[in-house]
Amino acid sequence: ALTFMLVLNLGAMIGAVGGGWLADRYHIKYVLAAMYALAAVSITLLGFRMPTELLFVVVGLAGASTIGTQIVANAYTGQFYPTAIRST
Predict the structure, then answer these.
(1) pTM for this entry
(2) DSSP codes, the chain
(3) Which one of 26, 32, 60, 62 is most buried, by most CB atoms within 10 A?
(4) Which residues contact 8 (CB under 8 A, 6 or more apart)?
């Protein structure tokens, strides 16, 4: 269980950095939509029986596309709302 948690969080770090890079290169809205779609697929795949090695890959993708995407979504909200109505 600890190894799966490690893989989930490593995937989240890779997803945050990779998602940020993709968001800079392409439009952030489309990157978020694609990452959320990947999250739906990867979380759905977690319900199926598979070999342990493939399960590690799916858990890493789930971490990248859920936790990592939420970090990218924070940047999107900063761009979406005007400066006058943002607060801490």
Answers:
(1) 0.81
(2) -HHHHHHHHHHHHHHHHHHHHHHHHS-HHHHHHHHHHHHHHHHHHTTS---HHHHHHHHHHHHHHHHHHHHHHHHHHHHHS-GGG---
(3) 62
(4) 59, 60, 62, 63, 67
Q: What is the pLDDT of residues 37-62, one digit of tens each?
A: 999 999 999 999 999 999 999 999 99
Q: Name the token pair of 17.
A: 């950095």
Spatial distance between the Cα atoms of 83 and 18, rounded to a whole number of angstroms: 26
Q: With beta carbons less than 8 A apart as the criterion, state whether 13 and 65 touch.
A: no
